[in-house]
Amino acid sequence: MSKAPVLRLDRLLSNLGYGSRREVQQLIWAGLVTLDGEPIDDSDQKIIVQPDLATRMIVDDEPLDPPPGMALMMNKPLGVTCSHKELGPLVYALLPERWRRREPAISTVGRLDKDTSGLLLMTDDGALLHKIIAPRSNVSKRYDVTLDRPLRGDEAKLFASGAMMLEGEDKPLLPAQMEIASEKRAYVTISEGRYHQVRRMFAAVGNHVVALHRDRVGGLALPADLKAGEYRLLTAADLEQVLA
Ligand code: URA
């Protein structure tokens, strides 16, 4: 396990978006920051940054925001984007306002299209992000796909072949699994993340995706009670599931 980082209290709070160094010093000197029930009056105090800090430190009567090294899952709604390059509201706008001022910033782990809903992971931990998206980690993603036209019947074989080419590309897709749910609905599991991959796979077999929803990343399923637009912090067990 990596060693827990140690940060000065004022740096920790300003990195979490509570204000400038000067502003958080005012909070600390006003006695509004407590650790294990005791006010901390020294803004230089060294703090060991561990996940349980969020339950032990209180800032202005509220538990501390998730300390650095956090990860969350969101049920991404339709119509919001993962990238500043696309038009429309960003997924970050669904997080508390202060979280948008964090350093290191929270980023999405891969992307979902604006018109795709479902399980989206986000983290401020660059090493974790790379571990999840690295090809060698082989983290699969499952999509619930609704189609415009009935399935032909040969899609699963073609997707699984490892020889399928997408238009404009020169490298075949890695094998993907497809499970038929009904005439116009299937679950597709892929282990790479090419641009608009699932939509393009179905376009290549003469179909059109009318709804796309990601319900699984690795072994982690989108919880049934996490509604569109809601998010939840990931536990260590959830992360193990992602990488399982
Ligand atoms: N494939 C797509 O076409 N879109 C997504 O958002 C994810 C996978």
Percent of residues in β-strands:
25-35%
Q: Hetero groups bound?
A: uracil
**What's the SSE pattern?**
EHHEEEHEEEEEHEHEEHEEEH
Helix content: 10-25%
The secondary structure category is alpha+beta
Taken from the alpha-carbon principal axes, the silhouette is: elongated
Q: Averaging pLDDT over every residue, what do you get?
A: 96
Q: Major β-sheet, in short?
A: 9 strands, mixed
Q: Residue ranges: pLDDT <50 for 5 or more in a row?
A: none
State the oligomer: single chain
Give the gist of this structure.
With 244 residues, the protein is an alpha+beta fold. It contains seven helices and 15 strands. Helix content is 20%, strand content 27%.
Plain-language structure description:
By secondary structure, the protein is α+β, with helices and mostly antiparallel strands. The chain has three domains: 58 residues, Roll (Structural Genomics Hypothetical 15.5 Kd Protein In mrcA-pckA Intergenic Region, Chain A), CATH 3.10.290.10; 89 residues, Alpha-Beta Plaits (2-Layer Sandwich); 78 residues, Alpha-L RNA-binding motif (Alpha-Beta Plaits, 2-Layer Sandwich), CATH 3.30.70.1560. The protein is 20% helix and 27% strand. It contains seven helices and 15 strands. Strands 7, 8, 9, 10, 11, 12, 13, 14 and 15 form a nine-stranded mixed β-sheet that branches. Strand 2 and strand 3 form a beta hairpin. Helix 1 packs across helix 2. It is elongated, with a radius of gyration of 21 Å. The model has no long low-confidence stretch (mean pLDDT 96). The site of uracil has 8 residues, from helix 6.
